[in-house]
Protein 1
Amino acid sequence: MTGGAAFFGRGIGGVYRCSTGISARLPLFVARIPAGFPSPADDYIDCALDLNELLVRHPAATFFVRVSGDSMTGAGIFSGDILVVDRAEQAAHNSIVIAELDGELTVKRLVREGSALYLFPENPAYRPIQVTGDTAFSVWGVVVHVIRSLRGERS
């Protein structure tokens, strides 16, 4: 089962290495911000939050990819999002992974059904891909975080 861009829902728009040489410590406020009704905000800073510490567990094995396409919208992954991918994490049943399939990179949910292995999209417009012995397949890493700009895709 192979196919082109329509089959995969496009794929990966770019791959970027993780650089932890720069620390970006930003203030983290103690108060949680409700997503429902507004409440008075506490303006006490709890600590400095380093995004590398928050998002990157294994710096040498972590990279970022920009998503291109709509096959994972049901998992909250949209075109233009940046995925934090950890190659040191073990891919397991139901993990969202970056996989190389017949020379193309794709982001999908890894599903094991008995002895069969599938890459499942999270959009009903696309069908699952069964990984067979005839398929050139490898898992590049496990998606551990999604970074989304509310201002649209950035290059």
Note: The helical segments are 5-8, 51-55.
Protein 2
Amino acid sequence: MSSPRQPTQRDREVGQQISRLRKAAGLTQEGLAGRLGVSQQQVGKYERGENRLSHTRVEEIHRLLTDAGGDVGFAEPPAVFRTTLSDAMKGEISQSITRIEDELRRLKQLLAVG
């Protein structure tokens, strides 16, 4: 039986950045939680790095926080978000390419049979 993935130092860094952005946007944890559709406790766990975040959730939080009170001073996403999104996007693109290749092989087999 494998153990669940534990949060890493990177998760804690992302959480700290979320906390800074939230405060810069003038939002409480409860306010951010309401916009995300999660509990205030969950936002606290995100900020403490206790719970891992998918890249989609990180992207959503970044969008909400930079749009919440207008621009909070970032011309582009902070480096911690850029790196997280970039790594996650590479993984998704790789998975998508694999699925497309698998589907093409399947379609070629179907055409060869008919």
Note: The mean pLDDT is 77.
Protein 3
Amino acid sequence: MDEKVLVVDDAKFARKIALKALQNGGFDNVIQATTAAEAMEMFENENPDLVLLDITLPDNSDLTLLERMMQKKPDAKIIMTSAIGQELIIDDSLHAGAKAFITKPYGEKEFLETIFDVLEGRKE
């Protein structure tokens, strides 16, 4: 697939799982970031079609990065990921502009379904 996906997570293991699932789903244009600063730079310079964004990063532990990305590109397709699936966090993420929220650990099938739903505009 031609879509460029930016995976933002400071945990190497989490990035590996996401990368494997994305490759199994046919995505071969995947870039990775481990900090909010690195993610923002890649978001601005690489113009990804989709961002998988972990809430908790070494230099960002709230929705600030999501909000900054949405200000730069209001139509960005961003899926938040977190091991903390509290309803308030999910609601706040969606209210701030995320198209979906995936709680870790996730199954590959559900993960890919969410990604395709967002990319194809079935989740707004």
Note: The mean pLDDT is 94.
Protein 4
Amino acid sequence: MKSLTINIVAVAVLAVVHQITNFGWYTLAGDNWMTLANLTTAQMQASTSPLPYISSLVGAFLSCWMLAWLFVQLKVESPLQGILYAISLYGCFLFFTGMTVDMFHLRPFRLTLINEGINFVNFMLSGAVLGAWRKYA
């Protein structure tokens, strides 16, 4: 019998895809996001550090790898099953944590929805891809 294993290629592809979806999401949110976050165009243009981008890529890789590992343990065998697990994990471990942090920082809930919305999209996408693009030992 074949045993499910982590598909490292799918994990790496998803980490890159997360960067693309993040770029698109925040491009669409644009001025609304900047206003809610109390940022100016000048501040954004003055920021030249590559660290946020490196952190985003590393974080995406690690979260996709951990999701893939969990899917192996849970024996996820379909995109729908992957989406359901990913959404459940996202809601329990990320959304409410992010929302609580934003509440204590007195940030507008609309900002939370923008910032957490892309995480929801990325987790749902990752669940679907990892549920469909399986690898067997």
Note: The mean pLDDT is 96.
